[in-house]
């Protein structure tokens, strides 16, 4: 029998489907899929995988999708799946991985990212939330802001300062924050769209046991870099079919509504279509590169392209639709469980896209990263290193 995982995987999936009914209990099915190593095939055995090459994952996903198997609702747990899981894999202890990865993958546990603070966004290493050791616990005090999904999250990945007598990048430690712990207070922040996807989070004498520390004391910056690099790939590099996403919506409107067409708009649509396709192919290439390792600074380029395109395409859509493009569907403050821009109005897409060039690293910062770490241009003078 072949030992090549690429040859073995189809048989393993077929065998799994013989034993588990995709139309049966959803959660039971997902848990069993994780236990069989068919969640993330490139993760270690016992952590949802089979230690197989990463590029084989789509083969497994496609086969489960083909038989209509339930998915783990990735849009509900984007931070968990896209950013926390690779961070736990790289920096977590075996006990942490055993405890946290399965309910993360099945979607039972939603995760949030407690990084940004009122005075520490782009300059993340300037954060002031403190964690002080007290016996077997850490006591955390501080404030986080723009925390997407905190109101739904069971766990948060938290950065806190544990030393002040060293350089600012050295004095940070990463924790898994129990969002149900006493002292964690989550307050909604309303956005331009009218919705409150994100929150302020106040941490007052929150006690976290030391076994929720992720990585070594003072090594939080290294852990955060893993999360941030994966964040850029998760936001900018998500798989999309040709003419998928926002450009697909606009192209469909163009085909269905000849009365909206003008020569100038035609030129602009073609320009956007070509850029969207180039961005999609760049993201595809990035995912192929990822199959052989960790995301590099190139992830910043796809995130940057995604943000700029989303703003331009959504702006074009609003203009194309004229008055109708300015009609927003709902201004009541909602807290949606899933982000699905494609089912909302053009106005909603336009307004929500403003945040794309801020969240996950602002476009200015990403341009700095590309200039310095991808293109090797001279670095900006910095006083904090
Ligand atoms: C929709 C949305 C969701 C978010 N979700 C989360 C979340 O779940 N968890 C979380 O922790 N954070 C989250 N954020 C926060 C986000 O990561 C920060 O807003 C972002 O990193 C920018 O930081 P800041 O807002 O403090 O802006 P600042 O750092 O104050 O920057 C202000 C402006 O100055 C520019 N600037 C700053 N420094 C430089 C420099 N050195 N060179 C050039 N330009 C510079 C910036 O690019 C920006 O244009 C979210 C933000 C948004 C919009």
Tell me the layout of helices and strands:
Layout lengths: L4 H15 L6 H10 L21 H10 L11 H14 L2 H13 L4 E4 L15 E5 L2 E8 L10 E7 L10 E7 L5 E6 L8 E12 L3 E2 L5 H17 L8 H12 L6 H28 L7 H24 L24 H8 L9 H12 L11
Parallel strand pairs: 1-4
Antiparallel strand pairs: 2-3, 3-7, 4-5, 5-8, 6-7
Helix pairs in contact: 2-5, 4-5, 4-6, 6-9, 8-9, 9-10, 9-11
The site of flavin-adenine dinucleotide has 19 residues, from strand 1 and helix 11.
General description of the model:
By secondary structure, the protein is of the alpha+beta class. 42% of the residues lie in helices and 13% in strands. It contains 11 helices and 8 strands. The chain has helices at 5-19, 26-35, 57-66, 78-91, 94-106, 220-236, 245-256, 263-290, 298-321, 346-353, 363-374; strands at 111-114, 130-134, 137-144, 155-161, 172-178, 184-189, 198-209, 213-214. A 4-stranded mixed sheet has the order 1-4-5-8. A 4-stranded antiparallel sheet has the order 2-3-7-6, with no helix packed on it. A hairpin with an 8-residue loop joins strand 6 and strand 7 (198-209). Helix 2 (26-35) runs antiparallel to helix 5, helix 4 (78-91) packs antiparallel against helix 5 and helix 6 (220-236) packs across helix 9 (298-321). It is globular. The structure holds flavin-adenine dinucleotide. Flavin-adenine dinucleotide binds at residues 112-113, 115-116, 121-123, 146-148, 198, 355, 358-359, 361-362, 364-365, 368. Its cofactor is FAD. Belongs to the acyl-CoA dehydrogenase family.
């Amino acid at each position: 029998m072949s030992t090549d995982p690429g040859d073995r995987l189809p048989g393993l999936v077929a065998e799994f489907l013989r034993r588990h009914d995709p139309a049966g209990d959803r959660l039971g099915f997902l848990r069993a899929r994780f236990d069989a190593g068919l969640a993330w095939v490139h993760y270690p055995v016992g952590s949802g995988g089979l230690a197989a090459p990463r590029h084989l994952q789509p083969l497994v996903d496609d086969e489960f999708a083909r038989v209509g198997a339930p998915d783990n609702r990735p849009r509900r747990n984007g931070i968990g799946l896209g950013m926390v899981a690779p961070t736990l894999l790289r920096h977590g202890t075996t006990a942490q991985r055993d405890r946290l990865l399965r309910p993360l993958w099945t979607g039972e546990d939603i995760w949030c990212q407690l990084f940004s603070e009122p005075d520490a966004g782009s300059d993340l290493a300037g954060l002031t939330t403190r964690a002080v050791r007290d016996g077997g616990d850490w006591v955390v005090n501080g404030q986080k802001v723009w925390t997407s999904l905190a109101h739904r999250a069971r766990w948060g990945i938290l950065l806190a300062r544990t030393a002040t007598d060293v350089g600012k990048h050295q004095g940070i430690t990463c924790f898994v924050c129990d969002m149900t712990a006493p002292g964690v207070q989550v307050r909604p922040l309303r956005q331009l769209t009218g919705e409150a996807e994100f929150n302020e989070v106040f941490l007052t004498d929150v006690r976290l046991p030391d076994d929720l520390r992720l990585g070594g004391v003072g090594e939080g910056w290294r852990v955060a870099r893993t999360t941030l690099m994966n964040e850029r790939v998760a936001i900018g590099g998500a798989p999309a079919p040709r003419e998928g996403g926002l450009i697909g919506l606009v192209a469909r409107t163009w085909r269905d509504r000849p009365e909206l067409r003008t020569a100038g708009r035609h030129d602009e649509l073609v320009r956007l279509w070509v850029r969207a396709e180039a961005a999609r192919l760049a993201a595809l290439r990035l995912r192929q590169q990822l199959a052989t390792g960790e995301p590099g600074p190139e992830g910043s380029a796809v995130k940057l392209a995604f943000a700029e395109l989303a703003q331009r395409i959504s702006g074009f859509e609003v203009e194309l639709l004229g008055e109708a493009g300015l009609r927003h569907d709902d201004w009541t403050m909602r807290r949606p469980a899933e982000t699905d821009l494609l089912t909302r109005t053009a106005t909603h897409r336009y307004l929500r896209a403003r945040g794309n060039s801020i969240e996950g690293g602002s476009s200015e910062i990403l341009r700095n990263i590309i200039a310095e770490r991808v293109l090797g241009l001279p670095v900006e003078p910095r006083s904090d290193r």
